[in-house]
Structures are given as structure tokens and as C-alpha cells.
Amino acid sequence: MKNVLIVGAGRLGKGFVGETFFNAGWNISFLDKDPKVIKELLKNGNYKVRVHKTDTVVDNVISGYQAFTTDKQHSVSEAFLSSDLLMLPLYPEDFKEAAHYLGELFEQQFKQNPNSKKTLICLTNKNHIIPEITAYFRDNLTNQETKDWFDSHVAIRDSIVRRSTDAETNYSTNLVTTAVASLIIQEPVYSDFSDVQWLDVRKNVAMLKDIKVFTINGPHAATAYYGYLKGFDDIPTAAQEEDIAALIKGVHDATVQAVLKEYPVTRDEIRELEYLPEAKNEMPDTIFRVGYDPIRKVGPKDRFMGVVALCEKYDINYDAITKAIACAFAYTEPQDANAIKLQDDIEQNGLQNTVASHIGRDQNSEVVAKIVDEYNKLAQLGLIG
Ligand SMILES: NC(=O)c1ccc[n+]([C@@H]2O[C@H](COP(=O)([O-])OP(=O)(O)OC[C@H]3O[C@@H](n4cnc5c(N)ncnc54)[C@H](O)[C@@H]3O)[C@@H](O)[C@H]2O)c1
Ligand SMILES: O=P(O)(O)OC[C@@H](O)[C@@H](O)[C@H](O)[C@H](O)CO
Q1: What is the ipTM of this complex?
Q2: Which residue range or ranges hold the Mannitol dehydrogenase N-terminal domain (predicted)?
Q3: In terms of pTM, does the model score above 0.95?
């Protein structure tokens, strides 16, 4: 049997990655830094995933896995050494710590089995971070010989996640997921996972990922932030409301125009990145998960500002995107640490300064003025409390 180690056993780790490898009959090991995640996984020895496919909804029970915390004694060691594939569904800011923890295990692998190879697949929505992630791993290797071995025996690859997976918390053992499109993985890889459904190795993943994050995640985040201000809790319900639907369309249309100008692709070619096939009984994804971490989402090259830069370059109207960004600056979800941090920044430094510093533009730039203006309009409508 083949072995996979899943680093990050939260929503995506359990609901997508674990479920998918379980269906293919692989040996699964989970590693998570949150002891609650591991305790819950081991409590009954199984967890449940409701899978929304295009034509049916299936309830699956996943069992027979191992699960480890990132403990000092590295209990995961044997599972790590026997897995030639590591899947890493982590937030971008978590890779440094994960690389630090795994460094010692790569040293062991080099000493015990220098001919073995490994593929690490990173599952995030942040693009162009593989060189940074690779550097985190190399920095944790003690000498040049191990680094040389690492360079020729370990492939760290990016991927494009085209599914939503939710649960009440990262440690929940009841998850929902949409299985309608594959995970697109950057080639080449050292591991053979051709027997696993939903994994698709391709060229040009950096370009395809920009297109997917801009066209899907931008409108998605706009739904979350405007939906929150209008009092909704879940994405499918918010997306039906007239004003929110108009904003989604505005963000999407500007984004598609910008993408078609910037990249050597046709409208037909981007369709699989721009829309996901509809799942049966659309899953009730939460505004909390989709809006999570507004600081990352309003950042200079992310789903909003990455597109604004292209709109400026090609003289495309981006008013809808500035309205979506204004909603992000008005997002006050108390359970989201970076939403609270944004509110503290606004209180201490004023709106204009805060917007400028987080989107990475000059205080007096046109885009900052537009966002401030949209924010004030939302306030006048009584949407900012
Ligand atoms: N859930 C989705 O639908 C979805 C879709 C597309 C992309 N993503 C991306 O997938 C990544 C994970 O999202 P999620 O929804 O599963 O988040 P999550 O919070 O549910 O799970 C992340 C897990 O990683 C663990 N973790 C953090 N640092 C770790 C470390 N150093 N070592 C081991 N474990 C560590 C956390 O404890 C947590 O359990 C994010 O980058 C997200 O943007 C998620
Ligand atoms: O994961 P994030 O925080 O970057 O973005 C939230 C959602 O937009 C995202 O997870 C989507 O559901 C997913 O990318 C769909 O394919």
C-alpha cells in the first residue's frame, strides 16, 4: 500500500485530502500542531465527510488512519520516512513552522535512505510562494551535503485548490466538501499518485493559479465581506441577495476582462478556472471561512489588489473591486484575529493610512481614495456599525 502524510489536519486536510486518499486505499497519516485536532481524530478512530458531487451527495466515513501531533519526540518519524508523498494543506503563514519541525526528519531520511525521493504538495490560495517555502525547508537542514541531497531528491510543488471544504472548527470530525473539480498540481513530481482521483498534474500552474485565485476567490471574498455587512452567515444565501449578486458580477466581470488582457488565454480556456461545476444541493459554506484573514486577502498581490493592478494597466473600470475591498476593511468578525487587527489599525491610524499600508499603495493614490469613498458610502447606508 502507498503512504501519504498529510501535514495540517484541518478542514481541507481531512475533508478533501484525507477523504480522497482513503477512497484510493492509501495508508494515511495526519500531522497537526493543534492537539485538539489529533485528539478528535483518534477519539473514535474515524471522521465523517459529506461530499457534494455534481449529481449526488455522499456520506463517507474515513477510518484506519494514524494521527500525530508535532511533539518533541517526533512520533510521526516512521510515518514520515515511509511516505514519499506529503500533502500540506496549511495557511501560508504556517509553512515556516512546519518546515522547522520537519527539518530533523529530512536529515534522518538522508542518513537512512539517501536514494529515496519525496514530493511535497502545498495547498494554499497564495501564489508565487514556492521559492519562499523551499527556502524555509533548506534553512532547517544543517549542512551543504544535506541541502544538495534535498535539492535533487525533494520536489516542493504548488497546486490550485478547486473545492471548498468546511466544518465548524479545524478539529471538527464532521465535514462537508464539494467534489466537482480536480486539484491541479505543478509538474514534475517524484511520486506516483495516478491511482488517486481528483489529482491532476499540469504545466504553467503559476499562471493558471493567478487566473483561478482572481476569478473565483475575488468574487468569493466579495460575497463574504458584503454578506457579513448585510447580516448573512453563509455564502450560498448571501450570493442570492440582489446587491450582493450585483457586486459579485461587477468583481467577476472586471476580473475576467483584466485576465484576458494580461494572460495568453482565451475565454474558453479559462472557463475551468473561472467557474466550478455546480454541486448537488450546494454546500452551506460559511462567511467566516471564506472571509477568514482579511489582511491577507486585501494584500498587494492577492485576489483583489492583484486584479486592481491589471485593471490600472489596461484601463479597466475596477469600482466593484474597490467596493469589495471597502467591505473587507469594515469586516468586524470577532473570532477572526486579523479582522480585529484591521479594526484596531483603523482606530489608531485612521482609515486612509490603514487602507494604504495594507494594500501597499500611497496614501494619496486613486485606489486608496476610491476605497475610502466606498467605505463612507457603506457607512452612510448604515452597513458599518
Ligand atoms: N477549506 C477550504 O475549502 C480551502 C479551499 C482552498 C484552499 N484552502 C487553503 O488550504 C489551507 C488550509 O485551509 P483549511 O480550511 O484546511 O484550514 P484549517 O484551519 O481548517 O486547517 C489548517 C490546519 O493546519 C494546522 N497547522 C497549522 N500550522 C501547522 C504546523 N506547523 N504543523 C502542522 N499543522 C499545522 C492547524 O492546526 C489546522 O488544524 C489554507 O491555505 C487555505 O487557504 C482551503
Ligand atoms: O482559503 P482562502 O482563505 O484563501 O479563501 C477562502 C475561499 O475563497 C477558498 O477557500 C475557496 O473556497 C476555494 O479556493 C475554492 O476553490
Answers
A1: 0.99
A2: 3-167
A3: yes
